[in-house]
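chain below, 192 aa
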Amino acid sequence: MSDPQSGRLVRDLDGATVRQRWGTVEENAVRLDGATAERITEALNEVHAGAFNLFYLTRKHYWAAEGAEFDDVAAFLKDAYQRMRALNDDVAVRINQLGGVPASTPPDIQEYAPVHLEAEHLYALRASLAGDLEAYATLAARMRDHVSLAAELGDEATVELLRDRLDDVEDDAHALEQFLEDDTLVRTGASE
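prediction:
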C-alpha cells in the first residue's frame, strides 16, 4: 500500500486522533492471521477501487444517456451504478472487518483501480457503453482472481461476498453486450 496522500484534495484533520493508519492491517475479529488479512485486504482494495470507478462511469453515462433507446439504457445504467455503489460499500466493510483500511482518497483509489475513468468529455453513448463493457470485464476478471486467492487462504466469507457480487457484475456485462448488438443503439456516424 502506498503512503498516505496529502495535498490540495487530501488533508489530515487537525487535532483529530488517528484510529488506524492507511496501509496497516490490525488484528481482526474474524481471526484471520495478519499476513492472510493483509493479502486479502490488498486484493479487496482493487475490487473496491474498481467498483468505485465503475460506479462513476455508469453514473456519468446515466446522466448523459440519450437517443432512441434512452428509457431502457438510462434505467439499466441507474440500476447498474446503484449495484456498483453497493459492491463498493460491501467490499469496504469487509476490508474493515479484516482489520484493514479501504482506499478512500482519489489518489489511492486511482492507484488501486484496475478500471480506469474516461476523460470528462461526453462521448457517443455506444462508445461509452463499450468502454463500460471493457471495465466490467476487467473488474470481473480481478474478482475471479481474488475469489481464488481468498479460497486458497481460507477466507470463505470473502469468497462468498465476491462470488455473490460477481454474478451481478457478469449480469450487467451481459446486459451491456445486448445493448451493443448491431441492431440496437442507433448509430450516429463517425463520431462513435
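The chain has a mean pLDDT of 91. The helical segments are 34-64, 70-97, 106-112, 125-152, 156-179.
thats it, cya
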